[in-house]
Specification:
alpha+beta; Jelly Rolls; seven-stranded mixed beta sheet; three-stranded antiparallel beta sheet; globular
């Protein structure tokens, strides 16, 4: 595993290219984390109240945090400011071969049932695309997670290098629950990445990974992707900044890319 200090972001691109992930430490100051943490707790409280049955049954994350449903204007602007931060831009420039587009936000937490199993997956398996297309797009479609931990947590378990190759027979049987395997069965050659408050885990959504539950898990995910219609068509318009919100966004490019592609597609 590669751990990257704030002052050594240039090594991030190499680590990401070879392993599919890198851990960045010390990127944000404590006052920034405190403000973000407060906003996330307000969102989580409102979201739980609106999704009680789902939360208590099996939820491990929520999404669309920049929507207008659960947060006021000022809280949404805290999130927009972070998503458009120059430090985030610096990481995007080191990873994406071209422009990056804003895709979504998520909040990860522990399931109510402490015995609920986690599961191996690639995000690409949920696109609805045929498997042969998934194989083809594994190396050509870029979707990036930036996961910022607000509390110390076990983090994620990943299969290094799996963002560039398809599953082995064992990995496939586990991920797709075939041959008597379960998606929560252990796999060989994995890396478990524990996270401290303020750590930012940058990883490819295409790689084999699973969340590790425990402690007081609370992590904010920022998702970016290639500016393609088939990816940004799922973005909720209500999750995008309004004109006045751009005043607080240092790097508006990912939002503008999403807006541009959606407009061209008539979405």
């Amino acid at each position: 595993m590669t751990s990257v200090a704030q002052t050594d972001l240039d090594s991030l691109a190499g680590a990401y290219a070879s392993e599919g992930f890198a851990l960045v430490r010390g990127l944000f100051e404590e006052p920034e984390l405190k403000q973000l943490h407060e906003v996330l707790l307000r969102f989580h409280h409102s979201w739980r109240a609106a999704n009680t049955q789902f939360y208590e049954a099996r939820a491990i994350n929520s999404a669309y945090l920049t929507d207008t449903e659960h947060l006021n204007i000022e809280d949404r602007r805290v999130l927009f400011r972070l998503l458009g931060d120059r430090r985030i831009e610096s990481i995007l420039r080191r990873i994406f071969p071209g422009p990056a587009a804003f895709m979504n936000t998520q909040l990860f937490f522990n399931p109510v049932n402490p015995k609920q199993p986690n599961y191996w997956h690639r995000d690409i398996q949920y696109t609805g695309e045929p498997e042969d297309v998934q194989r083809e797009e594994l190396n050509s479609i870029n979707v990036l997670h930036m996961r910022l931990a607000l509390m110390p947590e076990p983090g994620l378990e990943l299969v290094p290098g799996s963002h560039k190759r398809w599953d082995t027979e064992e990995e496939y049987c586990v991920r797709m629950e075939q041959g008597g395997k379960k998606s929560f069965d252990d796999l060989p050659n994995t890396a478990a990445v524990a996270m401290a408050r303020g750590d930012l885990l940058v990883f490819s959504a295409n790689m084999l990974h699973r969340g590790l539950y425990g402690k007081d898990r609370l992590a904010f995910d920022m998702l970016f992707c290639d500016p393609l219609e088939r990816l940004v068509k799922y973005v909720r318009p209500s999750c995008l900044p309004e004109e006045k919100d751009f005043e607080v966004i240092a790097n508006p490019a990912p939002f503008l890319e999403t807006i541009r592609i959606r407009k061209l597609a008539g979405l």
